[in-house]
Design goal:
It is a single chain. This protein is of the alpha+beta class and 148 residues long. It has four helices and six strands, in the order E-H-H-E-E-E-E-H-E-H. The chain has a single domain, classed as S-adenosylmethionine decarboxylase. The protein has a six-stranded antiparallel β-sheet with strand order 2-3-4-5-1-6, with helices on one face. Strand 2 and strand 3 form a beta hairpin. The chain is elongated, with a radius of gyration of 17 Å. It catalyses: S-adenosyl-L-methionine + H(+) = S-adenosyl 3-(methylsulfanyl)propylamine + CO2. Pathway: Amine and polyamine biosynthesis; S-adenosylmethioninamine biosynthesis; S-adenosylmethioninamine from S-adenosyl-L-methionine: step 1/1.
C-alpha cells in the first residue's frame, strides 16, 4: 500500500481509512504493549503529530485504544479469539499519508487478509482555508499577516 499517497488536493480535508483485518496474530492482538507501539509507530509513519493516546486491555482478552494526532486519530478494537481487528486511520492535510500508517499496522498484527474503505472527508466544504499548520509555522504566518 505504500505509495498510494492520493492526497486531498482534489477536495476534502483528509482521508479516513476504515479497516477490517482478519487472520491476525492473536498474541499481538491481545498485547496492550504491541498494540500501543504499533499505533504510535503508525502515527509516525503517516507523518502525523501525536497529541495523546490511551489503551485498555479487556478480560479475558482484547485491546481497544486510540492515538489522537493533531491531524485526527488512529483507533483499534481487537478480538484475538477471532484473529480480527477493527481499525480507523484518519489523517488530515497533504503532509500526511494514512496508507503508510496502515502498512505498519498490517505488518505488526501480521494480518493475512484486509479490507479497506477509504473516505475523503469534508468534500462538501466550499472554501477550505488549508490544512493543519505546525505551531512554529503559525507564528511565522501570524507575524506576516499582522505586518503592515
Amino acid at each position: 500500500m505504500t505509495g498510494k499517497n492520493r492526497g486531498v488536493r482534489g477536495g476534502g480535508v483528509g482521508r479516513h481509512l476504515i479497516v477490517e483485518m482478519f487472520e491476525c496474530d492473536p498474541i499481538a492482538l491481545d498485547s496492550i504493549e504491541t498494540i500501543r507501539t504499533a499505533l504510535l509507530d503508525s502515527a509516525v509513519a503517516s507523518n502525523s503529530t501525536v497529541v495523546s493516546f490511551d489503551f485498555y486491555r479487556f478480560k479475558p482478552h482484547g485491546v481497544s485504544g486510540y492515538v489522537l494526532v493533531a491531524e485526527s486519530h488512529i483507533s483499534i478494537h481487537t478480538w484475538p479469539e477471532y484473529g480480527y481487528a477493527a481499525i480507523d486511520v484518519f489523517t488530515c492535510g497533504e503532509h500526511t499519508d494514512p496508507w503508510k500508517g496502515l502498512d505498519v499496522l498490517k505488518d505488526r498484527l501480521k494480518a493475512k487478509k484486509m479490507t479497506v474503505l477509504e473516505i475523503v472527508r469534508g468534500v462538501g466544504i466550499e472554501n477550505y482555508e488549508g490544512y493543519w499548520i505546525p505551531p512554529e509555522k503559525r507564528r511565522e504566518e501570524a507575524v506576516v499577516a499582522t505586518t503592515p
